[in-house]
Amino acid sequence: MSPPKQPDEPHGSAGPAYKQIQAYIQELLDSAEYNPGDRIPSERALAEQLGRNRMTVRKAIEGLITMGLLERNSTSGTRIPVPRVTRPIDSSFGSQGIRRIIQAGGGTAGNKLLHFEQAKASAKVAERLKLEVGADIVMFRRLWTASDIPVCIETSHLPLALVPDLAAQDLMGGESFYSLLHNRYGIGAMRGDREIGVTTCNEMEARLLDLGVGTACLSLQLQVHDEAGQPIEYMRSVNHPKLVVFKTGQIDLSTPVQAENATSREAISEFGLSALV
Hints:
alpha+beta
């Protein structure tokens, strides 16, 4: 793989010098040679390599740190962050709310409501929720952060008949959404069927997650059912490729059948991650 093209002269048409250096470093990070946890070249080395002022290189790196693409440690230099959110994909549904997952990983969970409306179910949503096409639903979209760093965008769809008085304000008070379903609507035990895939982020998703348009991301599609098997929610999540990973639980390899199943499941997980980092 050829190395990234070095940035143009500081006063060229490509923009400020530090922005050009940022673009160069981001190409390095996207290459197969770098993985989460790897240390990047020092400011001095980059300045010498690029023929730039060290302070300009530092400004570029500080910007990438602010975006969450790099992190600095006083003892180990500047590194690519390890994933901030590890999403389990095969444990009981009760622990799967993204807020709990972020907190369990030591982060501070935050969210911003991006959109809320009552709408009509599309063919895809209707199929997932076992409704008629055009049935009344509630749709809302939230941006989730881990310690103020954007990590995923989740879009949820629910039958309006299930949550007739749900309002945008209900999603802005900090209460777990699944706790709200339980406390207000009496929806108890829930289970989720998950589908993991790879998607490319659109313009809105790229802007919110500080990524380039078309960047490959891991997607999660989740169908939530109550104890009777009735669909409650269809949710689609777009996850930052450098900050979120999906992880299976411990697998018993003591029998050939279990080992074969484990190999298949691990291959799916590794494909998603290796394609994105």
